[in-house]
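Let's sit down with a protein and look at its sequence and fold side by side. Go ahead whenever you are ready, and we will take it from there.
>
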Amino acid sequence: MRFQRKYSWAFLGVVVIAAALLLLWQRSELKRPGIASREPVQETRHGQLPATGSDNLDQAAPVPKGPQTAAEYVDRGNMRRRSGDYQGAIADYSAAIGLDPLSQAAFAGRGTALLAQGKAKKALSDLTRAIDLGPPSAMNHNNRGLAHQELGNTQAAIDDYTTALRLDRRFSTAYFNRGNAYLREGNRAKAVEDYTRAIEVDPKYAAAYHNRGKARETLGDVDAAVADYDRAIAADPNDALAYRSRGLALVNKRAFARASKDFDRAIELKPNVADLHYNRGVVLHLTADISGAIRDYSRAIEIEPRFAMAYFNRARLLAAQGSLGPAMSDARKSIETASAGRPASRDVQDLMEFIRRQEAKQP
């Protein structure tokens, strides 16, 4: 019993209900930035006439087998990008640029497709070229801002989002993205302001409610954060991240029953996410549902075999039950799976020492 009193809270994945280590496993804590989705359109410049087909009205024009002009390649690139065929889209935009090196739409489209592939540096180059070619485009500044943000150039990203908003004051995605950038640099108040503006433009913007909740939570206003997560879930009832975020906030409020239900729902939506099982395990651990907690820690480990905190918390519970051999194995695993070269924490060392003392008492 002494072991249970001593370790039932201090060794948990949270520090008394501060949720410090729970938050450690929110790998995608914020909703991702938004790529502007309006399609780049091949522009017609002064003096450029559309093709009219055959001069001989009695002869049918041949049916082209594929794109023939830069505009047609851009159109097909847009369709491929919408369907998720980014490589095919990039090939089409590149063909358009080969035919028309001054096509803003082709550079903008290729930059957007590269951004979707995670190739931010190449995307930045193309989107800069699209901006230089003109005319001014809020979409292109928004997307270049995303490229800057992916590359860690937060102020440059903010500058681009601000330019996008000067061009289009009702560009909710740009407000949302600038809010993310402000939050990244630690300016939580400005982040809340921008998420609020995004919501004013689009009252059903679930991601903006969610991220405003995260910003408010970091400002210490947990009640307001929970209210924002409520709104995010109302706007998108199938968003596992919003249920997880609300669950974590409810743990901070010691509302364990509600938190457990949120993790249940998140797991229904995303059954193969390790930290959802881990976080529900922590709630069950806190409410003395030991078998349920062990089950959830075990499931987290099945999904992610290098989940050090799940091994550690399971080791604590196994030791409390007297399963000393499996507990010691888990404690060692928690050390092996921690960051490379990182020494065992004092908590793990204390737990292992307790297990050794208990083993020494056995006949």
The chain is about 65% helix and 0% strand. The two ends are 20 Å apart (CA to CA).
